[in-house]
Amino acid sequence: MVYRMLLTRFRQLAPVTVAALFATLAGGCQHYVDKPLNPGQTADQLLNRTLTAPDLQKFLQENTGRDFAEWPPKSWDFETLNWVALYYNPALQVARTQWAAARGSIITGAARPNPSVNFSPGYDFNPAAGAISPWFPGGSFDLPIETAGKREQRIAQAQWLAEAARQNVFVAAWQVRSDLRQALIEWDAAGRRGQLAQALVSTQQRVVDLLQQQFDAGAIAADAISTARLALVKAQADASAAQRALGQARSHLSAALGVPASALGGQDFSAAQVIPGRAFTPAELESARRVSLQTRADVLSALDAYQASQAALQLEIAKQYPDVNLGSGYLYDLGENKWNLSFSVELPIFNQNQGPIAEAEAARQTAAAQLLTVQAHIIAQIDSAAADNASAVGAVADLQKFNAALQQHLDSVRAQTQAGAASQIDYQTALLDLDSSQLALLDVQTQAAVASGQLEDALQVPFANLPAVQNDPSKPAPTPSHE
After folding, report:
1. How deeply is 31 buried, as exposed, middle or buried, from its count of CB atoms within 10 A (0-12, 13-18, 19+)?
2. Are 322 and 348 in contact (CB under 8 A)?
């Protein structure tokens, strides 16, 4: 009678209990939300980007501290354009999503093993005579317990890897800055080259016209004017090439900013010209290099990866110690209520996790070697960039002196021409020499700007901020909390 009452009560409560359990589990679960991508819509978003968007204005105000009462600004400087590139450039968004994925691994590492519930009804095919019923319902509950701080080491490893991913965002941000600088150098050089090349064509044309007059008068031979005409053809070809280079520079600048080329129309980038840097003294270079070897984002990322490898090794060492499983069971056996406790542990007899420990130790050595490799690469990069920068700055200074001498010569020939002591062809030839020298000066100035940018990339500190950083170098990132 008692058994029938319990069995009836169990049948009444079992569906409710199971339903409540599943409702509780379902309430804590996340559900998949489909987010399809439409290539047409994403393409429209890219093509509709502008440098006049209100959202861009708000972003720049928040990050630069400027008011931008006039929007868009009359002219764009390099640092403001750098923030534009950080806002639009898709490469940085990829790094951010990778950082978000790394942060998600912290949640994974902090997860505790779930307990388990087992329902095990049984049936006795040979019940004793007079038994109440051959059915005997039963169940058990199992609670796994991790030991030796395995969870803490998983969290530590995930936190260090997330910090390394965060530093990679800075690496990507600097690459965006580098690409923008290079595009602006190309843009500026292409525009100036077009103007100088056209001036050279005009001067060369005047020389040809003057020689043609002399040839018509029988004062010179035909080969003299032929040489000048060939020079004119070459100058015209160079001017056409300069126009094509300007179009390519426009495309590269729009790509660096992350906007379509049409968004550049009507914008003034004259204030964004990148001025070549100066040659550093050995003491300044040594100080800057030491700062970079400790604070560059890729160094900090490699250091964080090494710390993660240490946490991984500690985790594998902790796995030598087995986890514990605590359990409890209940069985209603032919009118008798039976309850039991269980304790289980894996016996580390045949192996003590030696293989994974050896692998983790090797991974730690690899991470240490990777840090040294990164720093060695930085030293070589800084030394090479510093040498190129010093050489380029020196070449600019030398050619500027040569140009000044040509300008003085041109002024002298002009005065002589006005006094009748020199011919107009002498004056145009002197002007032609100066135009050609100015094109050569533009080339070395462009090389100096590129070399200066490469040195800034090697240091990964804007030149304007370098004195402050040298006086108070940033320390490596603090140890992330493992709580």
Report:
1. exposed
2. yes
Q: Is 447 exposed, middle or buried (0-12, 13-18, 19+ CB in 10 A)?
A: buried
Q: Is the dihedral of CA 421, 423, 428, 429 positive or negative?
A: negative
Q: Which residues pair with 140 in a beta bridge?
A: 118, 329
Distance CA 476, CA 299 (A): 9
pLDDT of residue 32: 83
Structure tokens at 429: 């030839």
pLDDT, tens digit, 9 for 90 and up, residues 266-320: 888 887 876 666 777 888 888 889 999 999 999 999 999 999 999 999 999 999 9
Angle at 201 between CA 197 and CA 207, to 5 degrees: 140
Q: Bridge-partner residues for 340, per DSSP?
A: 329
Q: What is the percent of the chain with per-residue pLDDT over 70, rounded to a whole number?
A: 89
Q: Is 262 exposed, middle or buried (0-12, 13-18, 19+ CB in 10 A)?
A: exposed
What distance, in Å, lies between the first and last C-alpha atoms of the chain?
56
In three state form, how does the secondary structure of 431-465 look?
Answer: HHHHHHHHHHHHHHHHHHHHHHHHHHHHHCCCHHH
Classified as helix, coil or strand, 29 is coil
On whether the CB atoms of residues 137 and 332 are closer than 8 A, the answer is yes
* Sequence-distant contacts of 396-403: CB under 8 A, at least 24 apart: 396/276, 396/441, 396/444, 396/445, 396/448, 399/437, 399/440, 399/441, 399/444, 400/441, 402/437, 403/434, 403/437, 403/438, 403/441
Helix intervals (H) in 111-149: none
| CA–CA separation, 220 and 233 (whole Å) | 21
Which phi and psi angles does 340 have, rounded to 5°? -145, 160
Q: Looking at the predicted structure, is the pLDDT value of residue 334 above 80? A: no
What local confidence, expressed as pLDDT, does residue 471 receive? 62
pTM of the model: 0.81
Other CB atoms within 10 A of residue 84 CB: 22
Cα–Cα distance measured from residue 327 to residue 344, given in angstroms and rounded to the nearest whole number: 8
CB atoms within 10 A of CB 422: 17
